[in-house]
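Materials and Methods. Structural model of ComF family protein. The 230-residue sequence of ComF family protein from Algoriphagus ratkowskyi was retrieved and submitted for structure prediction as follows.
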Amino acid sequence: MRLFFVKDFLDLIFPRNCLLCGRTLYDLEQNLCLICKGMLPVTSYHLRPIDNDLSDKVKGLSDVKMVMAYLKFTKGGDSQKLLHQLKYRNKPQLAQELGLLYGTILKDHEFHKCWDLIVPVPLHPMKQLRRGYNQSEQFGIGLGDSLSLEVKKALIRGKFTETQTQKSRIQRMDNMDEVFQISPNATIANKSILLVDDVMTTGATLCACANVLLANEAKNVDLVTIAAGG
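The predicted structure was written out as tokens:
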């Protein structure tokens, strides 16, 4: 009884609200209300993971297999609002919830049989220190919980890169050159890896990471992000 009283008191002082619509959350709701979760712009890439507009983007850049994203990115849409919460509002638990939600979809389609481990795209140490966490890693943790897969930080980011926003596809790949290295003692040889990131635009960052993994004898690499645009 005392625990319920304390929880009710904390909810009164620090109300828990949906990160999209602002409604008060019920006890079983974590970061999003059931209504907003039901209205998320979920994609169908898991139904056609090898031949889609995302896999077309990375052709010729990396020898990856499946490419998928949980949400469709639209400017000003719910997916952009969620990514903003992850990057600027200190919401690592939101990334985990999104991973759990997408992981449930992927497990229903038996994708958990495709991979040995999950590897997140790393942040530069200074950026992670400022943010307090790596949103891609937190997303991977949620996926791992759903898919019963280990999350391994097998990559390190050795160079702070300029913003990619105004760069062309080729310029983005050049900007990623020699940015990522394999982590010391990372064991990935002959492993099927799910590489995860928060958002995919041109795919330059993901391909740079995938190429490092493949160069270090990963069996194959597939890509999954929280959101991706057209």
